[in-house]
Amino acid sequence: MAAEPVFPYEIIFHILSFLDYPEHGHDPLYRCSLVNWQLNRAASKLLYESVTFHRTKQLNLMTLDLKDDGLPDQRSPWTSALLPHNSPFVKHLQVSGVLNMRHPPKNRLPEALQTAIKTFINLSSVRFTPDQCYEDTFTEALKLLCECPSLRSVHLGGSWLDEKRAPILTELKGLQKVTIISPSRAVLDLFPRLLGQLSDELVELHLLDNCGSITPGVLRAFLPSLQGIRSFSLGLSYSITDDDLFDAVNQLPCLEDLELFYYYQQRSPITAPTLPRLRSFAVTLKEHPTSPQMLESLSKWIRKFVSSSSIEQLLIREERWFLDHKVLNFDSLVYHLTAKHSSTLRVLNMQHMFISVKAQKALFAKCKELEVLCYTSGKTSLSQFKNLAHGLPKLHSVALYTEHVGKLLGSNVTDEGATEILRSAPSLRTVIIDGWSWQGHWTTDDAGDVKLEAKQYHRSHSRYPVYWKRRMLF
């Protein structure tokens, strides 16, 4: 008689889910899958939930590899995911990067995609965002998705989505989330029809990056089909003024999550949109404000969007890092948040925005619900944080950046210094200082006492070490 398992499957699956993070890789879950049948079942569900095929750019673009058939490596998860005992676990499929440009039959990727979609019977989301590919790589795969009853989300982008293939989108059914990168006019012309037939199910629409084809008329054409939308994103379109934008979002009564591209306009609308359900607002800046007037204009623009809501997450980033910019205080927005949203604000990520010591004190004194915090300050930022952080009982992740202090402060912080910062707030477990990152770990000393200590685990070569949007930061 087989022995009863020590733990139920649900508990084992929950425990193993803590290993399912990008920094861990697949190795810990793979090792767990070799222990016994029960661990294999739980680990396989996590290992094969998402299948990704991404090819990086070839170093020598002048050399054509005649042996390249466009398929993933035989040792990749793609191959084992197609096995009958693994394929039901696959829910998310992603294909991106520099794909094979040759025509079939020398390029076997189009055929492999069709096989994968037929095999992954529980597929709920797909992402086809190649940097380059054979023009018909996704054509037949997209047609098969129209017959996929479990499909709920599509994320599409690239030059392949042209006048010939865009009409296939109108055959997709049951979608709850649609994301299009740099939508072309061919796609936008079909939007009223597509969104009209998805209006009962669709809750998220994201139009990202270059949205120059979206004019005020195009925007107004598909707004009537978005009355039930809860999450909306719009990339950069210089033809869309703030008046057009404010009027558009005002017609989305169920909006909870909003992401917009901001560029400076001298004329600001008098009235503010009314968004009582808004909980998360993300802003991408085309350029860093270079004058007090530009900074105050940005602050007013953000305040108008969040003034009527109980905002929980506010995220401000820049399209690219501007090295030579003036240090201007962004205190006016901080004071607005402390006055109007102190009881609801949980996530504040404004990495490139400088706030003064006075504004820091107001933020730490009033916004007691903060869990994630990211901002830029001066040379006393570390000492100020250690003195003030004890008043934030829920803060678990913080990123501090410094401006015009000579050598970056993060390079001088030791593990002992980071440990002192971690212990300054009761729940703090992750600290990032100018790109240097530390994670809190529980350890025991020779006497058996348990202590929280910091261990450096990541040095970012980018100015964007924090995760951005639709996932918990850090």
TrEMBL record:
Segments passing through the bilayer: none
Annotated ranges, domain F-box: 8-53
SUPFAM superfamilies named among the record's database cross-references: F-box domain, RNI-like
Classification via Pfam families: F-box-like
Name assigned to this protein: F-box domain-containing protein
